[in-house]
């Protein structure tokens, strides 16, 4: 797998899953450093390859008054500071071709949001930066269709591409993960399971997305058992007061025990 190609990524020879984790959005420097410090300590202890996640802006919002960010350059500089402070790679979402060029100057992995997984110009722009590209499977797309998204990256002279499953729309206000898609998508690229967004309950009448965080452990364990290469999860030390996606984030205090359990499951599977 291409993990060794990402600068600063540690424990790539541990035969563990890799982890993309952090807050939904960068709300400020202190909160980002606080979350990163805890996550780095845990993943170093468990020898989990770790990438700090934080969106420098949130463009996919239900309501016009929803929090979108603290300023693009300000947030990207915080991501860079996290990387330099803790010697870890970082990942952020992009929404436009201009975002790809700008964010690539600060982070190691560019993430294509699920709603934009079919946007050819965006994917090609991300690929041409030379950064690793993580494409989230659209809630409206089949696992098989992700082959074409991956091909867009590879035909742009970039072999560094991942697929992240974040569930499929089930009715108007719920998501379901079809684990049959994991082995299908692994034929095309390394596969990540987004365990927190898979538990979202979008399209609420209030315009604020809901979620089922009590099931994060269940979803993560199922993903490891199904053979995913990596896990994605959003975590915060105060989810109830997070400015974005607090309803489906993992409380940071629960991260260590969950990852210990997941490492044990992975070790069992590796020995089968």
From TrEMBL:
Its EC number is 2.5.1.55. Keywords: Cytoplasm, Transferase. The keyword Hydrolase does not apply. GO terms for molecular function: 3-deoxy-8-phosphooctulonate synthase activity. SUPFAM superfamilies: Aldolase. Pathway: Bacterial outer membrane biogenesis; lipopolysaccharide biosynthesis; Carbohydrate biosynthesis; 3-deoxy-D-manno-octulosonate biosynthesis; 3-deoxy-D-manno-octulosonate from D-ribulose 5-phosphate: step 2/3. It is an enzyme of class 2 (transferase). It catalyses: D-arabinose 5-phosphate + phosphoenolpyruvate + H2O = 3-deoxy-alpha-D-manno-2-octulosonate-8-phosphate + phosphate. Residues 13-260 form the DAHP synthetase I/KDSA domain. InterPro entries: Aldolase_TIM, DAHP1/KDSA, KDO8P_synthase. It is found in: Cytoplasm. Belongs to the KdsA family. This is 3-deoxy-8-phosphooctulonate synthase. The lineage of its organism: Bacteria, Pseudomonadati, Bacteroidota, Flavobacteriia, Flavobacteriales. The gene is kdsA.
